[in-house]
Amino acid sequence: MGIYLRMRTVLVGLALLLISLDAMAAGLEARLDRTRLAEGDTVELTLSASGDSQGAPDLSPLSADFEILSRSQGMHMQFSNGRSSTSRQWHVTLAPKHTGSLQVPALHLGQLSSAPIGVMVLPAAQAAKSGVPQEVILEVEANPENPVVQGKVIYTVRVLSRVPLRRAELREPHADDAIVQRLGDEKQYDTNRGGQNYRVTERRYAIFPQHSGELEIAPPVLKAEVPEPGKRGSSPRDRFFGGRDPFSDFDSIFGSDPFSDMDSMFARTHPIQLRGRYVKLAVQPQPKGTPSPWLPAESLSLNEAWSPDPPVFKVGEPVTRTIAITAQGVTAEQLPDLPQTAIPGINAYPDRAMSDTRPDGDTLVAQKVFKVALVPSRTGSVTLPPVELSWWNTRTHKLETARLPARTVEVQPGAAGETALPEPQPVTTQAESVAESQVPPVGSASAAGPGLLSAATVQAIAEVGYWPWVAAAFALAWMISMGLWWRARSRQRVVQVPVEAAPRMPRADPGKSLRRFEQACLTNDAAQARQALIEWGGAQWPDNPPRRLEEIAGHLPTEAATLLNELDRALYAGGSGVAWEGAETWRNLEPMLRGAGSGEASSGNDTPLPPLYPQGT
Q1: What is the span of the domain harbouring residue 38?
Q2: Which end of the chain has fewer CB atoms surrounding its CB within 10 Å, N or C?
Q3: Beta strand pairing status for 36-38 and 117-122?
Q4: Which pLDDT score, from 0 to 100, does residue 592 have?
Q5: Span 494-519, pLDDT tens digits
């Protein structure tokens, strides 16, 4: 009896052990390729579950400490003792959002769950002290960090790399309450940090805070692929010729290496993501007692030009005056309009102002140009008032005033001997009617010239007070003055001031649509993927934009038709259980799409960097 009870106990224990082993085998296993990494590096998370598991694991808990760069899935089959087993695997590339001790939390797949895993992310400086120099560094700096409101801040971004960067994209900095403008082209140069040679790509921006107080600038983000450590020696010539390279003397003989580019092409890579530091600016308010409009600048000047030059003022004949505001450290949108002051004896007809902003080294140069036609209406001395503009000097921190002095001119009679023209102002009329015969006709002997009114005529009309004739006379005089002005303007020589460039028509950006398609594929969103791909095709071939995926396939290699057909089936299968692997579709379609769009320039916030290939590592 005792033996029977013992055997029964053993059998029950074995049964429980088998049940627990089956439960463990059916669980969700999580593992990382490493648990200690430097700031900016990425880590790969692999999740495994039995082949009969349904659905996909919930990755949302990862968003607290990690950014998901890519994801993919596949099947794994294993044979043991004549029996086969399958498991499903999910591969997720993670970029830590900050340094310190992080944790990949427990993830769930239906009733299954994984165990949490700890990760240590070392700051860049601490990782460098450990003896392993950083392959890629992202630096930012701002100067000054306590600007005056609407004053210029130079924001510099530097990417330092010891290794080639592939598919490098730099997301530009931004601030919610500031204007951010790129300064010129990128600069590239070499530098040495800690005994290591780096290739530097530098970008500069001008940032203009729009309100006082604290302003936080969201940092740039660099995404790229770099060679796997220790895998750079597996080049085509190593595999073909082993340790001895028969082309080792090729450089000295012919000056080039036929395999140098192939080494980089075949090297295994892994993604990285670097985020610059957040910069906080202490923006100072406008000083008390300073005038409006508020204009902080590094320098500012007023200049004028005349046509004809020197100007000759005659009654009824226009003279064009051009005034230009030129300032450093501001944009053209910040430059104010000049006040219009009435000038007794001269009628003013302003033209539309022209403005332009251009980068100049480490600053911006803005210009606003005003043109006005001045038409004298009487002879004698006329004083043109001064033109003044107050501005805040951000270099000396003082209020200054740019000024064009007043000018007194002598107005001569017109070509036909006229001495006065009517002023363009309202005329007070009388209510009583006057006989038409009492009003001297326009163009009679009393007029100073053909089609122009003499002073006597104007006086007679004013005394009679017969308003219809007054209005007609003034309208005719105004039309004649404008005709003379346009005639003189067409003959005047061009004033040497910059003109506003013709606006460019907006251009569709296939690069943005391609990135939206990539994101939709990685998140397995078939509907968004199809929409983004149709938008990409419309931007790629605007003369004949495709409306369906099969039309896009006609522009691509033949293999693309199968992949695009699978995407359509996933959308229109009507619940038949057709599965679509977005990550796999993106991986196969990407080279075909980029090949079709190789001539397009990408724009937007994610700006591709030029190839960064250091001369030595």
Answers
A1: 27-121
A2: N
A3: parallel
A4: 86
A5: 334 343 333 343 445 788 888 888 88
Q: Are 358 and 485 contained in the same domain?
A: yes
Please confirm whether the linkage preceding 116 is cis (ω < 30° from 0).
Answer: no
Question: What CATH number does residue 65 fall under?
Answer: 2.60.40
Give yes or no for a contact between 310 and 330, defined as CB atoms under 8 angstroms apart: no
Secondary structure class of 427 (helix, strand, coil): coil
Indicate the burial class of 544 (C-beta count within 10 angstroms; 0-12, 13-18, 19 or more): exposed
Answer whether residue 32 is part of any domain.
yes
Q: What is the pLDDT of residues 201-258, one digit of tens each?
A: 999 999 999 999 999 998 898 988 888 765 544 444 444 444 444 434 434 333 444 4
- For residue 613, give both structure tokens: 């290939």
- Give the residue from 317, 360, 57 showing the smallest Cα distance to 181: 360
Look at the block and give the residue holding tokens 């346009």: 486
| Spatial CA neighbour of 42 closest among 67, 72, 61 | 67
Q: Exposure pattern of 16-46 as b/e (b: 16+ CB <10 Å)?
A: eeeeeeeeeeebbbbebeeeebbbbbbbbbe
* 612 Cα distance to chain centroid: 21
Within 61-175, strands assigned E span 66-80, 83-96, 100-104, 108-109, 112-113, 117-122, 136-143, 153-161, 166-171
Same domain, 246 and 364: no
Residue 125: CB partners within 8 Å, gap ≥ 6? none
Look-up of token digits 């003989």: 253
Domain assignment present for residue 128? The answer is no
Taking each helix axis as running N to C, give the angle between helix 559-572 and helix 526-540, from 0 to 180 degrees, rounded to the nearest 10: 130
* Structural domain includes residue 165: yes
Q: Is 30 within 8 Å of 114 (Cβ atoms)?
A: yes
pLDDT digits (tens, 9 = 90+) for 317-374: 999 999 999 999 999 999 999 988 889 999 999 999 999 999 888 889 999 999 999 9
Q: Residue by residue, what is the 3-state secondary structure of 528-547?
A: HHHHHHHHHHHHHCCCCCCC
